[in-house]
Amino acid sequence: MDLSSCCWRLRCWGTRDPMFLPGVSFPPDWPVYRETLIKLSVYGVNDGLQQTSNFLGSSSFSVADLLQSKDQQLSLSLRTADDSATVGTVVVSRMKMGEIEDGEVDHITADMHQKCTLVYESSHGRINDQDNGPIMNAVFKNAVCKVYRFQTVDSKWMLVREQMAECTLSFSVPKQLIALYIQEDTCRIQELKDLGELSPHWDNLRKDVISRYDQIIKEYQDTLAELEKLTGPLFKPSCSKGQKYLEFIPINLHTQRMQVTCPRKTDSFYDVVTVGAPAAHSQGFKNGGLQKLLSKYETEKKSYSTAYQCIYYPPEQTAKAREILCVVSQLQPHISALADQLLQTAQKSPIQPLRDVLKSLEEKTEQFVHALKDELVKSALLALHAARPGYVSKSQTSAPSSPHPGATEEPHSVCNNVDGSQTTPKESRASPVRADSIPHHKEYDEEEWDRVWASVAKSLNCVIALVDKLQEQDNNNLESAPGHTLADVITSHSPDPPLTAEVWQDQLGVVVQTLKESVAEVAERARRSVSFILLQEAVCSTAQGLQLQQRRDAVFSQALAALACGFVMRLYAGLEDKGFLRQLHAVGLVAQFESLLSTYSEEIGMLEDMEVGISDLHRVAFRITEAASEEAFSMQPTVSGRRDRYTVEVPLPHHAFQVLPDELRQGKPLHVLPVLFNVGINEQQTIAERFGDISLQERINQKNFEILEGYYKSLTNTVSSECLPCFQTQTDIRELLDSLGHNVVTKKRKNVEILWLAGMICRRINGIRFTSCKSAKDRTSMSVTLEQCSLLRDEHQLNKDYFVRALDCMRREGCRIENVQKNIKCRKYAFNMLQLMAFPKYYRPPEGTYGKVDS
């Protein structure tokens, strides 16, 4: 039998509390036999800040030696490297984890006159098969694991496992977004060109705007090319947050999972995503962040609109214009495809499938009419008309300063029926396009605009009338012989002169083609008018507006990468939870972002950026799809859409996809409600609270509390409480919300209870948890470890004597100090003693783990 050996390295810290109990466990896939040799190498850390260490001694033993010893315990002498002297003693004992839960793996601990709680560490993350299936491995990489054992209040032991991983979405989502930005701006250029001939004034302005878009496209193409060259780590370290070519990449994005194994209980999992605050660090915060800059930008737009003789459109109207443009681009091809499908169905199918297709066609045409009858489109048509060469207004030479309602009429909308008579669809029919819904504008080419709208309504009504006539000709025949084709029905049992199938299909083909052409004409006119609105917005944007759009793009990219990572992690964790899946498609999920930024100096700008970036996530929907294979590349989420609306498709392997509820398998859009709560905890926040302004933080917390409360009301009205997870803590969610509502309006310095309550509510309602500070490295580490130990105390009866010890152990030896090492190549948090004096008590790291560094 082959012998396997491993080298176990122990670090002895020069602390005042010399108790240390490290350990090692062997995963099931490791080749461990009785003959396996284990070598212990012990190092002393001379300087906890600089991490310098010296070799103390080593010792070896076999597994058989341990198992055959009295009480399964060995006392070994530590020998120097040249084996010339004994420098100490180490006691090795077998700890059977069956004491915690039958069937658990054995552990070996080495007692060096110290007592700590870290019992295992691994850099490959292959302890738990559940976290390392094809699904998880496709998106989450380079896991680091730490395992601890802690004593409960009833003197039993729990096993706690931390796993921190990088996420492929840190780079893949931003790269997809940049490509979509390029595609959208390229289309925008084409739309501006498609406006047709304009007066010299407007043509010159159009050329300037196209030149700006070309500049953005060139910069984004260069950035994408640089990102494509990158290989190596799947995260952006904190020291690179100011790099221009990395501005779209989230800072230090990692997932962290805590798994808890307790006696006679099923394992519990607690997930959190840690990420640096989404902010435009490369552009700086000298003039504030997005929230302040956008407000200033709108004020400037009004003055520029006057200078360039443009109509000023407020943000809600330009947003509506983009929405209309998006709806038109989606609905026109959809209506055209349904019209073609109707013709194909008419040739070979029974009447019921024909009615199903007709119903879909009616619904999509109604949506089309509803979207384009907006007053904004009417005023834009007039403005575009006024921008044509040679235009002379009867009453004025410029467009009105704001859209105004136009009068509506009800043109006579009828069609020739198949028997030559005139008919109007029955009032009881399921919502055909009504003539009184056709918009027009008194001041702009009224007859022509009415004509194209009337043609849409008339064509659809004719299609409906033809199908109605078909069913009326022989309704009894359909009931007795539902399998008959349309040709059978048309030529039999009709009180009117029978129609041949060919004549009926020819008539249907004519009106369907007319419908398609009418919809295309209306869509083209609307597309041009709305594009003219966006041209005017771009004209008023100036160079500052261009830079502002780039800033918003970058911040949103960071936020979306984090959200996609959190959604995927939460989805994977809940695939077998029917209640969670029901909640997911019924009301969506809350994504709760916890921020520890101060409201002082540059971090005000970061928080302003973060607020806008998180708020913009409401434009995102998720959709679950079936992966083509279980290869990693097939299970990478993909992003599609444009700035006003994005969809993230999350592929699942066949076996996981097939057991999902019908709504999810059918591709129903899934929405995530982003909420942000911020409480600054550092010394800069102390200055802000005493001498500065914390109104930004107060406004954010109050606003997002209202959003969270609204979601909970929707949740309780739609989904049974059985969908929600069970917690040992008995406090009702409603009580937690009331307490949170009280705290967000209470004047209290560094009120971290807001964060605790928001995080607790989020977990209780199946939400996605995010924790952020400037770089997700130092303050974030304090928050994550505190939350983990609080969960162990509140949900798993962690012995109160272990709370601070567990907290210190996680901060000194856990995944978060590894995160610090990954970011700045040094195992110390970037705090100094003066800073920590301003921190809330439980946010302070243990002695020896901090020191001021550049980050």
UniProtKB/TrEMBL annotation:
GO terms for molecular function: phosphatidylinositol-3,4-bisphosphate 4-phosphatase activity. Residues 393-441 are annotated as: Disordered. Residues 414-425 have a biased composition (Polar residues). InterPro entries: INPP4 (IPR039034). The keyword Lipid metabolism applies. GO terms for cellular component: cytoplasm. Keywords: Hydrolase, Lipid metabolism. The keyword Lipid metabolism applies. This is Type II inositol 3,4-bisphosphate 4-phosphatase isoform X3. It comes from Carassius auratus (Goldfish). The lineage of its organism: Eukaryota, Metazoa, Chordata, Craniata, Vertebrata.
